[in-house]
Amino acid sequence: MTDIKKIPTKKSIFSGYLWFFVYLLVALACINLVFATPTVAAETPISEKSRVSHSSGKMLGAEASADSKAVKAKNTATNKPRGAKTASAGLTALNSHVALYDFAIFDASTELARDIDGDGYFREFTLVFDADVQSGVAEVYAEIYLSRDGGPWLHHFTTDVFTIVGDSSEDQYEVNSTLVEGFPSDHYDILIDLYEPGFDEIVATYSSDDNNALYALPLEDASYDAVEVIVVHDDDHGGSFSWGLLLAGAALLAVRRKMSAVLG
């Protein structure tokens, strides 16, 4: 009697290769879709409500109040283009005899914080600037604007009214910002417009044209600053299944970030 031996087949390896090519084809199709239609995505208008940030400010030498110890959990950016603001109410007695040309911004510095995914783009920044008046004491406030990669200046934050004394460096103002939504990974410039309360004329301007500390800051909002973990469960489908899933996952992640940046 002839013995019949069953030869085991390597179905798991074949299945692994099949899954590899399926995920690879899906990833390549998505990449082709993104790069084939950049013009349509670029035409998407920027909504004034599409950018959200939480900011707070205080005099650097002053005691922090309970409200200024933490960044306010509300959107402080109107996103209006520069030049669209209206005069603040209330001409102060302190400023009634100060000429508009007597003001200047002497210096500014920035500090970046919180890069969770380690891609070199940060979700938080601190701006410190020193406003001066030629002589005496005056009250001022500032409008802060951001420009993405040389684009239009959009309003980011309005400071409280604060007091400056001559050319003292003890009256610096600090702004802390957390980017929440609508800030794709990119380089952003900062501009500061200084005003007197009750007037709509700008008394001093300071920007990335004056100081490199305000130029090309690598920023992104919290939605771009997250570490995504891809869990692969290899259930006897061979090593090719794991590699295929990892490759497809990485490709799809890159596609998602590219599409979000183009649409942002």
From TrEMBL:
Classification lineage: Bacteria, Pseudomonadati, Pseudomonadota, Gammaproteobacteria, Alteromonadales
Superkingdom in the source lineage: Bacteria
Residue ranges, annotated region (Disordered): 63-84
The organism of origin for this protein: Thalassomonas haliotis
Annotated protein name in UniProt: Choice-of-anchor H family protein
